[in-house]
Design a protein that fits this description.
It contains 32 helices and 34 strands. It has about 775 residues and is an alpha/beta fold. It has four domains: about 70 residues, no CATH class; about 220 residues, Rossmann fold (3-Layer(aba) Sandwich), CATH 3.40.50; about 210 residues, 3-Layer(aba) Sandwich (Dimethylsulfoxide Reductase, domain 2), CATH 3.40.228; about 120 residues, Barwin-like endoglucanases, CATH 2.40.40.20. It has a six-stranded mixed β-sheet, with helices on both faces. The longest helix is centred in the first third of the chain and has 16 residues. The structure holds ligand MGD (2 copies), iron/sulfur cluster (SF4) and molybdenum atom. One ligand MGD binds next to helix 25 and strand 17. Belongs to the prokaryotic molybdopterin-containing oxidoreductase family. Its cofactor is Mo-bis(molybdopterin guanine dinucleotide); [4Fe-4S] cluster.
């Protein structure tokens, strides 16, 4: 295998490992959050910008999808450290200009790290890479749209194009984008949800009839028990800790279920309260279940079995609102406790104690995120959570419910707006209003899109935001698939990996970010977003745009549509001129959006209807909430192997790498680390600090390799290792996905660690699969 020297210092030579921190946030968090802003925006712009964050009349945080408190209850600084970093990343004063592209050939950019690419600043002008060229060159907007439009018009079928969306896109842009794709003739609308909470959507649709969570922020505050499963809120949803703290002050108990003892879950120092600035803060979790990766289905089956044994079920709820209870109860009679203990790695006593807390609670919420959704058995595991909540009657009751905690700030809204590879129920109504045909074929999801590109069935890839080349699994396969396209187009704010994996022709279309003023013909526009708890509200950009050449996402979609569908009778130009016209269409067809304009104009926004939450009405085929029988399969880990999961560091937003530290886990100046329990290291005969390759092993006998990781002894659950995404995506084959949701199984990878051959360059070699040693870009 070729070991390549990196183009620049990835920092890993200076990697240091300290003791993990015991608690999250506090004054340290605020200072850490402000530092990138000060460095990238300066003092005045930082202060002005951050004061608008999450305030009425200001912009919605481009970080995560955690909700804001109601307008009257907001603090002056209603944001967290990572929200401030997300804003700094967008509001930076650094710029990527045409001169930048003239100075850096694509071949060079492709060898730069994700961190370096992001650090170059905001994209400022449309760029094209023509066949055979070595550099991106400027192109006018008109020529860019004509290029995309003529290519799309020239395809044999609209299904030869795929239109990807990342979850930062506003409701208005998302609605227009799916309208365009459908009017053009395809349902090929893969999105980041396919890699994120798709498993939650599929499972909940089956059990309660709607793929969204059933709680509000107020419910979190009123719960008497919160179970936080497979989630690291201290890093990924920091203000969720404030909500958990409020719940605790109101008397709630908290159970954390996680292979890693994440700092924020265990203790929290609230920076908005003086007592949080000093001292050790609030102990959050009352009980910590250090579960093995993949043990959740077994855990919740064990909970259900105990609750049934104790008669601790809400019989009247079960009788009135559910179906399938008898079969479910019968199935659990055969529960094999030996399997439960193997799968979870927990003792029977630990499980019984936690189950007792469930039995005692009159208002329980279960929250979860990526620890549950990215495994082969994700959908069954989430259905099992739903089963337990149904047993106890914990849906449609104040302070109780099911709470998938979404990632991207508008990922839930994008789905509501019809960004989906299947057809929303309201699509026929839209089609008849605007006179187009509903495309007949089901569209491709993310993994299917990669496969179709590889096979030549998809020839044009269009990405509205995101970083498809880096976020997806099977890095080499995905990159080859993108490179095989006739045309790739990325609507982006920042330079990223996807721009360095061009199709035969490639376009970069730079757009406004959410923080920026969006002026159109009818005046300044605002957009709307939906948070994780179905609350919809307006977001007003206020900053001066990073460049005068930027277009809004809405304008880009509108012009794309006009260039592609010249005879279209849909009023694309009117939508671009005044976003109220888009909201009018949304209000006319999407349930729950009646009187949209008036309801977002007030600032407070509104919460979308959710029949199970609001009325215990379950829009399933049976009209009841469904108990579903799930089979418990214990993953066998061969001797000498570990079950690897991939996590986010505290200094990244998905594929955007803000910095090289992961403070809470004690990692500084580097990312190529693999966390392993010290007892496992001893059993494997590998010393802490050893440089290893991570090799994943698959049932077809194939292997994939990521090279040059430093082993860090860490108190993870036994037999379970962790490393960062996207560096580890090279290890996951396209075929390894969750049942039913087709989400890449990036959190259960059987691996062995191989001490790396000692070379001159330490910890910097590019990831590569065993099949090829093409550099994947140092991470
Ligand atoms: N700052 C910041 N914020 C973000 C993001 C970011 O990258 N940076 N990303 C956003 C996005 S898109 C998303 S989807 C969310 C992601 O939010 P999270 O889901 O919190 O993100 P991960 O880092 O993937 O963390 C997964 C957690 O699940 C645990 N886990 C892994 N496997 C298992 C398992 O089998 N069982 C259990 N019980 N736990 C397990 C891991 O130890 C880890 O604590 O965050 C959003 N917010
Ligand atoms: N191994 C592994 N893989 C994973 C995961 C994991 O946990 N482990 N998590 C998965 C998850 S949960 C997700 S959500 C996906 C994320 O997949 P994506 O959403 O595709 O990736 P991001 O890194 O969030 O996208 C970052 C890019 O978005 C662009 N961008 C930022 N803001 C805007 C904007 O306002 N408009 C536009 N047009 N562009 C913008 C910038 O150019 C930036 O480079 O990754 C998935 N991949
Ligand atoms: S919790 Fe999420 S939405 Fe709220 S300020 Fe932090 S990053 Fe932004
Ligand atoms: Mo996500």
């Amino acid at each position: 295998m070729v070991r390549k020297a990196p183009r620049e210092d990835t920092g890993d030579e200076n990697l240091t490992v300290r003791r993990p921190e015991r608690s999250a946030a506090g004054v340290g968090g605020v200072i850490h959050g402000l530092a990138p802003g000060l460095a990238q925006m300066g003092v005045r712009r930082s202060a002005r910008t951050l004061l608008k964050l999450n305030q009425v009349g200001g912009f919605d945080c481009p970080g995560c999808a955690w909700p804001e408190p109601a307008p009257g209850k907001r603090h002056h600084a209603e944001f967290c450290e990572n929200g401030a970093k997300a804003v700094a990343e967008e509001a930076t004063l650094r710029r990527v200009t045409a001169e930048f592209f003239a100075a850096h050939p694509v071949s060079e950019l492709s060898e730069r790290s994700d961190h370096w690419l992001g650090q170059q600043g905001r994209l400022t002008t449309p760029m094209v890479l023509r066949p055979g060229s070595t550099h991106y060159a400027p192109i006018s907007w008109d020529d860019a749209f004509e290029l995309v439009g003529s290519t799309l018009r020239g395809l044999d079928s609209p299904d030869q194009a795929a239109f990807y969306t990342s979850g930062r896109t506003s409701n208005e842009a998302a609605f227009l984008y799916q309208l365009f794709a459908r009017a053009y003739g395809t349902n090929n609308l893969p999105d980041c949800s396919n890699m994120c909470h798709e498993s939650s959507g599929v499972a909940l649709t089956e059990t309660i009839g709607i793929g969204k969570g059933s709680v509000t922020l107020d419910d979190i505050h009123r719960a008497s028990l919160l179970v936080v499963v497979g989630q690291n809120p201290g890093t990924n949803h920091p203000r969720m800790l404030t909500a958990l703290e409020t719940a605790k002050r109101n008397g709630a108990k908290i159970i954390a279920v996680n292979p890693l003892p994440e700092a924020g879950l265990l203790r929290f120092r609230n920076p908005q309260r003086p007592s949080g600035v000093i001292g050790d803060g609030t102990a959050l979790a009352d009980r910590y279940l250090q579960i093995r990766v993949g043990g959740d289905l077994a855990l919740f089956q064990a909970f259900a079995s105990l609750l049934l044994e104790w008669g601790a079920i809400d019989k009247s709820f079960v009788d009135t609102y559910t179906s399938g209870f008898a079969a479910y109860r019968a199935d659990l009679e055969d529960l094999d406790w030996a399997d439960v203990l193997t799968a979870t790695g927990l003792s029977r006593e630990e499980i019984v104690e936690a189950a007792r807390m469930l039995a005692m609670s009159d208002a329980t919420i279960v929250c979860w995120a990526m620890g549950l959704t990215q495994r082969r058995d994700s959908v069954p595991a989430i259905r099992e959570i739903s089963n337990v909540q149904l047993l106890r009657g914990m849906v449609g009751k104040p302070g109780a419910g099911l709470c998938p905690v979404r990632g991207h700030s508008n990922v839930q809204g994008d789905r509501t707006m019809g960004v989906w590879h299947e057809t929303p129920k309201w699509l026929p109504a839209l089609a008849s209003r605007l006179d187009f045909e509903v495309p007949a074929r089901r569209g491709y999801d993310t993994v299917e899109t990669i496969r179709a590109m590889r096979e030549g069935a998809v020839r044009v890839f269009f990405g509205l935001g995101g970083n498809f080349a880096a976020a997806t699994p099977d890095t080499e396969v995905t990159r080859a698939a993108l490179a095989a396209c006739e045309l790739t187009v990325h609507v982006s704010t920042k330079l990223n990996r996807s721009h360095t994996v061009p199709g035969r022709t490639a376009l970069i279309l730079p757009c406004l970010g959410r923080t920026e003023r969006d002026a159109q013909r009818s005046g300044d526009q605002f957009v709307t977003v939906e948070d994780s708890m179905s609350a919809v509200h307006a977001s007003h950009g206020t900053l001066r745009p990073a460049s005068e050449h930027l277009l809004s996402e809405v304008a880009i979609v509108s012009r794309l549509a006009r260039a592609t569908l010249p005879g279209s009778t849909i009023p694309w130009a009117a939508y671009e001129d005044d976003y109220r016209a888009i909201r009018e269409q949304i209000a006319a067809v999407v349930p729950g959006f009646g009187d949209y304009e008036a309801r977002v104009a007030t600032g407070a926004g509104f919460t979308l209807p959710h029949p199970p939450r609001d009325r215990r009405q379950f829009p399933t085929a049976s009209g009841h909430a469904n108990f579903v029988v799930n089979r418990l399969e214990v993953t066998e880990i061969p001797a000498g192997r570990l079950l690897l999961q991939t996590v986010r560091s505290h200094d990244q937003y998905n594929t955007t790498i803000y910095g090289l530290d992961d403070r809470y886990r004690g990692i500084h100046n580097g990312r190529r680390v693999v966390f392993v329990n010290p007892d496992d290291l001893a059993a494997l005969g590998i010393d802490d600090g050893t440089l290893v390759d991570i090799v994943s092993e698959w049932t077809d006998g194939s292997e994939r390799r990521a090279t040059g990781f430093r082993v860090v002894g860490y108190p993870s659950a036994r037999g379970c290792a962790a490393t960062y995404f996207p560096e580890a995506n090279v290890l996951v084959p396209l075929e390894s996905t969750a049942e039913r949701s087709n989400t890449p199984a990036s959190k259960s990878i059987i691996v062995r660690l191989e001490p790396a051959p000692v070379g001159p360059v330490v910890g910097s070699a590019s990831s590569s699969s065993s099949a090829t040693s093409t550099p994947a870009g140092p991470a």
